[in-house]
Amino acid sequence: MVGLSDALRVNPVIAAVKEDEYFDAAVVSPCKIIFLLTGNICNVESVVKLARDAGKGIYIHIDLIEGFGKDKYALRYIKERIAPEGIITTRAPLVKIAKDLDITAIQRVFLIDNLSFKTGVQSIRQVKPDAVEVMPGIMPSVTEKMCKAISIPVITGGLVNEEKDIRSSLKAGAVGVSTSSPKMWEFRRHEQ
User: For the CA atoms of 78, 82, 88, 91, what is the dihedral angle to 10 degrees?
Assistant: First the structure.
């Protein structure tokens, strides 16, 4: 299995695949991690296998994969049969279940105002995900504030379409940046 922290030290960019046609490009990209944001119960196992066979770590966004219930049985099935590196979810109760099942969990939070920031921090502190994905990822001052508020690795994502967005997030303290823009998948840390 490809560990999240180790992979992000090598390459901080995560290929976020939200359309099937971009999966092959993600697999051959320099990104060590793939966030799968599309698919269904019928194809996710083969997609995860392809990524893993290519040496990529793959995390599936359970809220976006069709056909799975949002409960402990779905998570147990995903762990035992599909075996991704972990899951992504916006749902704090699923993070807790994943942690109980020893599944790496990334909690995605949308920060649209001060209240969403406050409730996001409270939720993160309560369920203790392995990492947090902060959206949108183009707010370095908010990313820096989140990194200071929690002791969990922060990933940024959403609206990241330029290299300056990646550099700003990393400078603000993010350990990684997820983007669905294939041209951003070519970013190299040494270019900072």
Answer: -10
* Separation CA 176–CA 31 (nearest Å): 11
CATH number of 110's domain? 3.20.20.70
Q: Which two tokens stand for residue 98?
A: 């994943």
Phi, psi of 111, deg, nearest 5: -105, 105
What digits encode the pLDDT tens for the residues 144-177? 999 999 999 999 999 999 999 999 999 999 999 9
Q: Is residue 169 part of a domain?
A: yes
pTM of the predicted protein model = 0.96
Q: Give 164's contacts (C-beta < 8 A, 6+ positions apart).
A: none
Cα dihedral sign for 191, 50, 110, 158?
Answer: positive
Q: Does residue 111 sit in helix, strand or coil? A: coil
Residue 85 belongs to what domain range?
A: 4-181
Question: Distance between CA 36 and CA 137 in Å, rounded?
Answer: 17
Q: How many domains does the chain have?
A: 1
DSSP string over 178-190:
EES-GGGGG--GG
